[in-house]
C-alpha cells in the first residue's frame, strides 16, 4: 500500500509542477481570405533561438537563415497543430497548413509571422494552447484585429488541466 501511495504521489506531482518554458505573445488578424498570426517570443527563448539560427551573428535573419529556421524549428510544430486548434463549436480540428511564413528579430525578440487558411465555417474558434504545457501562448483583446463585417472576440478557457485562449470569429 505504501509503495502504491508513493508511486501515485510521484506520478501526480509531475503534473502539478508542469509549467511553460516558452512564452509567446500572439497577435491575430482575421482577414477576408486568411488569418495572419504574429508570434513574439519571450526574450530568453529569443536569445537562444537567435544564437542557434543566426549563423553569421549579425542580429538579422537572412533569407537562408529564415528558410532553415522554418524547416528546422517551425515545421517541427506540425504534429502539435502549431499550438492552434480550430473548432466549429462541437469538434476540434488540428491545423495542417501554414502559408507565408517569415521570421525576424525585433527589439530583442524573435518574431514569427505566418498565415493560415480560413475555415469554411461561418462561426468558429481558434484555440491556442500546448497540452504539454511547455509553451504558453498569450492572446489579448488589443492584439486582435478583424476585417470589417467580421466579429471577433478573445476569451480564455479552462481546458481540463491547462489554461488556454481562444478567438471566437463570426462572419
Account of the 3D structure:
This protein is α+β, with helices and mostly antiparallel strands. The strands form two sheets. Strands 1, 2, 5, 6, 8 and 9 form a six-stranded mixed β-sheet that branches. The chain has a five-stranded antiparallel β-sheet with strand order 4-3-7-11-10, with no helix packed on it. The chain is globular, with a radius of gyration of 18 Å. Mean pLDDT is 87; it is low at 2-16. The N and C termini lie far apart (57 Å). The protein has helices at 2-16, 43-53, 63-74; strands at residues 22-30, 34-41, 84-87, 92-94, 99-106, 109-117, 123-128, 135-138, 144-146, 151-159, 162-170. The longest helix has 15 residues, at 2-16. The protein is built from three helices and eleven strands; from the N terminus they run αββααβββββββββ.
Amino acid at each position: 500500500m505504501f509503495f502504491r501511495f508513493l508511486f501515485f504521489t510521484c506520478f501526480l506531482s509531475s503534473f502539478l509542477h508542469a509549467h511553460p518554458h516558452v512564452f509567446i505573445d500572439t497577435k491575430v488578424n482575421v482577414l477576408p481570405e486568411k488569418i495572419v498570426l504574429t508570434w513574439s517570443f519571450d526574450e530568453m527563448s529569443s536569445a537562444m533561438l537567435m544564437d542557434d539560427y543566426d549563423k553569421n551573428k549579425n542580429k538579422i535573419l537572412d533569407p537562408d537563415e529564415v528558410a532553415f529556421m522554418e524547416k528546422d524549428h517551425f515545421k517541427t510544430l506540425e504534429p502539435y497543430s502549431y499550438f492552434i486548434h480550430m473548432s466549429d463549436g462541437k469538434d476540434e480540428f488540428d491545423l495542417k497548413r501554414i502559408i507565408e511564413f517569415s521570421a525576424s528579430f525585433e527589439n530583442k525578440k524573435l518574431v514569427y509571422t505566418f498565415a493560415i487558411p480560413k475555415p469554411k465555417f461561418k462561426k468558429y474558434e481558434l484555440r491556442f494552447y500546448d497540452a504539454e504545457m511547455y509553451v504558453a501562448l498569450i492572446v489579448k483583446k488589443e492584439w486582435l484585429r478583424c476585417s470589417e463585417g467580421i466579429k471577433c472576440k478573445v476569451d480564455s478557457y479552462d481546458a481540463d488541466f491547462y489554461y488556454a485562449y481562444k478567438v471566437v470569429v463570426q462572419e
